[in-house]
UniProtKB/TrEMBL annotation:
Residues 13-70 form the CARD domain. Pfam families: CARD (PF00619), Death (PF00531). Residues 128-197 form the Death domain. This is Domain-containing CRADD. One of its GO terms (biological process) is signal transduction.
Amino acid sequence: MANKQQLRNSIKIQKCQVVLVDGLDGVTVTKIVDHFLSQLVINDEEKNAIQAKETEQEKARKLLDVIRPKVKSQDKENKSELFNGFVECLEKHNSSLASKVENADDSVPNDELDIDNILERVKNIDLNEKMLNRILMRMGSGWESVASELGIESIKIDNVRQDNPYSTHNQKFEAFNSWRKKQAHGRGALTKLIKAIYYCSVNCNVNMNKILECIEDP
């Protein structure tokens, strides 16, 4: 399983796919291929598959198809050797592209997160009011679906809306804190909440990465 930095680096490349395919010329692709071949990152078969493509865009697209999974899976813990090598090659031949890749948004999509690993990491953390408040600050519209997933009744949701007509955050906090207090001193509550957020991420405007950051780096 890729660690956080590996995944973020591969996402940077993925999010720059269009500009890279449009911006990489045949010479640059060849230079990058030769570099990674000399580093034993790619093999002759992969090199030939890239060079066999007819147009520059097709070559660039195939190169990215080969490199991105390797960045995601092969970089060593807490290092970014393949990603850095890719950016350095770009820098030599197209500094503008290198800058775009290096500074690209690297937020991890919810559907690429390993929920089992996340639940293991948070299982011994108590959900207190302060942490709940931080989590709810990062939960946007659609929070009602998470509440329903946790078993909070619709009448409770309606009541907190009526009690706090001008503050969505207060609505959320009152509903979820009431639920939290019913758990055994908060133990296990965080796991349940994270699982509910993950399952409802399609309907709820939430970035799981931001929530994990506020839990692990308060």
